[in-house]
Amino acid sequence: MPQTLVVKIGTSSLTQSASSQMALSTIATLVETLTHLHSLGYRTILVSSGAVGVGCARLNLTERPRRMPLKQAVAAVGQGRLMRVYDDLFSSLQQPIAQVLLTRRDLMQRSCYLNAYNTFQELLEMGIIPVVNENDTVAVEELKFGDNDTLSALVASLVEAEWLFLLTDVEQLYSADPREVPDAQPIKVVTPPQLADLQVKAGSSGSAWGTGGMATKLAAARIATSAGVKVAITQAQHPHNLEKILAGEPVGTQFEPQPRTEARKRWIAYGLIPQGTLYIDGGAVVAICQRGKSLLAAGITSVEGEFQSSEAVQLCDSQGKGLARGIVNYSSAEIRQIQGHQSEKIPLILGYTNADTVIHRDNLVVTANQ
Q: What is residue 173's three-state secondary structure?
């Protein structure tokens, strides 16, 4: 089966930093590269930022909007312009594209998640390159991806991609910002254990018009590699690096993936937004993280947040380290009553029982390296 590639390019690479006008030469080279990769048999998805930045340029705004209604209006202006440019460039190479706008809500509901998967598969089977962006016009703050690095990682997980390429304004990851620390060391390959411990000094944004920085790319790499996707960070001004990386050349910074988990558990781990937190004792940590067991009420020490049964929560140890995510069988109010008790006492405490487990192992995903 042909490999699926997800390629993400950010606003700082799509626009000129001085004027916020579109960097057409970079975009054109990227389009040529993606079309060539498609001709070689790769199934390619482009995750593109830039709607707000392009909208600002179109409306002659001097800075990125801060108010959500204005930002959404500007995104609506910019998204049409951005897609027009992509469509013109891809069409000149006879390559059809499709616009896909997503919000976090689309990936939270299982039925919508599966619909999104099926749509991507149909587009790719038809030889179409999907161009994906967050639907800034309707997304609300609490349900935003936050940045398109995260969006691209979630899309890569969704479509079970082999590669996620994060195109940025530097050629690779460094131990510190090379613009501030001249002797910062380049990082060429990152293994899963190294990624878990990696701390890199990185700005919050690559430019005045973008929302991401190297820190968000590391977060995206953690999501994607946990889903079994290989990740590479490389320079957006040289899109041909994608072909070199696929050919095995040590270009940019490359992140080795973990073994791929099944689709539903990837949805639980990264598609859902935790509505609360359960703190668990040492015995429960060992049972869940090392033995693959379910979470029982006896292992819960405290509950944070308000949530209903069948909603997602995060599991943390006594030090607050996030360990896992899962879908609960009881509400926060019910768990506060049964925490620390043996399962056979649940009917006596509540007067009924939904399940012997608070989270069954089939609905539980370990997200931290142990």
A: strand
